[in-house]
């Protein structure tokens, strides 16, 4: 897979506030889905969708149907990272039958978009927010713009840092099979925005996973 394309967003204070509200709402939906994944031990994207989609649409009408789908994807993806990555100390293969910890998404968790909630045309980016579409004028390099025409868009992630908001586009050749693979760098460390409550006691952190992934004082920020 090719390297992701990172696009910083030049936001006004009002736009940053709207994106922050979207982040918080998206995390709320993830936190409503996560207990179901924990209790049913189901984080297959399709299976989890069947379990929670209708109730999440009723509970979070302001988020919209497609963002609920994206939140389901986010929980599925994160569960696979925490419970199935071979370098994870919480890999369920090491703890058969043990109760699962609950994953808690903090308000700064990333937001996943797709072609229904974000579009890019003629240099104008249009993205879903809780109170209507937000638009940005993007000045992409010709080589980057060509990738949108030549490659298949696999994933779009909105995140925030000290440098501000940015979008990360994951693209790959059209002929490459579309699989829900764990990120290549997943073994480096778990994301800062995730809290893991008690459940499985982690094993010693393998090489490549930092010791801070161990749970302490009843919960751990991973």
Question: How would you summarize the topology of this molecule?
Answer:
Blueprint (H helix, E strand, L loop, with lengths): L4 E4 L4 H28 L4 H15 L5 H20 L18 E3 L5 E3 L4 E4 L2 E4 L6 E4 L4 H9 E11 L2 E10 L20 E3 L23 E2 L1
Antiparallel strand pairs: 1-8, 2-9, 3-7, 4-5, 5-6, 7-8, 9-10
Helix pairs in contact: 1-2, 1-3, 2-3
Can you describe this structure?
With 222 residues, this protein is α+β, with helices and mostly antiparallel strands. It has 4 helices and 10 strands. The strands form 3 sheets. Strands 1-8-7-3 form a 4-stranded antiparallel sheet. It is globular, with a radius of gyration of 18 Å. The model is unreliable at 177-182, 184-188 and 204-222 (pLDDT under 50).
Fraction of residues in helix: 25-40%
- H/E element sequence: EHHHEEEEEHEEEE
Low-confidence stretches: 177-182, 184-188, 204-222
Number of helices: 4
- Give the rounded overall mean pLDDT: 84
Described by the principal axes of the CA atoms, the overall outline is: globular
Distance between the termini: 26 Å
Major beta-sheet overview: 4 strands, antiparallel
Strand content: 15-25%
How are the strands of the largest sheet arranged? 1-8-7-3
> Can you count the beta strands?
10
Q: How many domains make up the 3D coordinates?
A: 2
Q: What's the multimeric state?
A: single chain
| Content-based structural category | alpha+beta
Please tell me how large the radius of gyration is.
18 Å
